[in-house]
Specification:
alpha/beta; Rossmann fold; Helicase, Ruva Protein, domain 3; 2 domains; 7-stranded mixed sheet; two-stranded antiparallel sheet; 9 strands; elongated
């Protein structure tokens, strides 16, 4: 849809409306929606992608928090039986309320930068019903999602997202493609939940805890950042050098540390 000057972008919702037809075409080509698929668009805004998504013949649910935009989108698309509006906050949305089949939901969104990380974690908690996700995000966030061990971008977000998903940094988008232009570059990323986890942890909540503790003070060594959870000997027993910094460990090493913690917890439970 062309840019609509009647609605002013609201800072509190982090709104930057996509209007570049070339970028929209590239996004649609990347998604490659097909008739009969279940699509969910988060934050459709002024409908830059919505019309094209509906044109694919897919069933489209949208989640929009801004009441003015809800009215605008309903006026434009509600006569299409494939369109369904869900007004509210995507961070609180129950994706199972859509009754999707396992691994069927294809999620799309130009995500507000201020909620992108918590929203991705909310979606990962529902990864069982999701087939793939295509998001416009701050370029810096996409670089963190797609990072590899050893660099400054590798951290909690990289590890926990890559635990659940394959990450593909598709292409970058400049500020001029939006109204108003953001102060940063953006990028399109594809997240595809693994059918079989490559490094399954005994307890993914303990994995989250180990990763969070490790990166709370990322310049310190693992034996220092994890000392409240694991001793130096326990870290070494996992085949991990306690003198390394957390950014030097790959996903499999963090899973081994979490499994060591899980084993200790089960031993303590059986002993009590």
């Amino acid at each position: 849809m062309s840019e609509n000057n009647q609605h002013r972008a609201r800072k509190r919702f982090g709104q930057n409306f996509l209007h570049d037809a070339g970028v929209i075409h590239r996004i649609m080509r990347a998604i490659h929606a097909q008739p009969g698929e279940r699509l969910l668009e988060i934050g459709p805004g002024q409908g830059a992608l919505t019309g094209d998504l509906l044109s694919s013949g897919a069933q489209l649910d949208v989640i929009e928090i801004d009441r003015d935009l809800v009215a605008m989108l309903n006026h434009q698309f509600a006569n299409n039986p494939a369109f369904h509006m869900n007004q509210g906050d995507a961070l609180k949305f129950d994706f199972n309320s859509l009754n999707p089949a396992p691994r069927s939901l294809r999620v799309v969104g130009n995500l507000p930068y201020n909620i992108s990380t918590p929203l991705i974690f909310h979606l990962l908690a529902n990864a069982g019903v999701i087939r793939d996700m295509h998001f416009m995000l701050q370029k810096e966030v996409v670089e963190r999602l797609a990072a590899t061990p050893g660099g400054g971008d590798w951290g909690r977000l990289s590890i926990m997202v890559q635990y659940h998903c394959r990450v593909e940094h598709l292409f970058n988008v400049g500020p001029g493609s939006f109204n108003p232009p953001p102060k940063v570059d953006s990028a399109i990323v594809r997240l595809t939940p693994h059918e079989v986890l490559p490094c399954p942890a005994k307890d993914h909540r303990l994995l989250e805890r180990v990763v969070r503790e490790a990166f709370n003070q990322r310049r310190k060594t693992l034996r220092n950042t994890l000392k409240a959870l694991l001793s130096s000997a326990e870290i070494e027993a996992c085949g991990v050098d306690g003198s390394l910094r957390p950014e030097q460990l790959d996903l499999a090493a963090f899973v081994r540390l979490a499994d060591q913690l899980s084993q200790q917890a089960s031993q303590q439970t059986s002993a009590s």
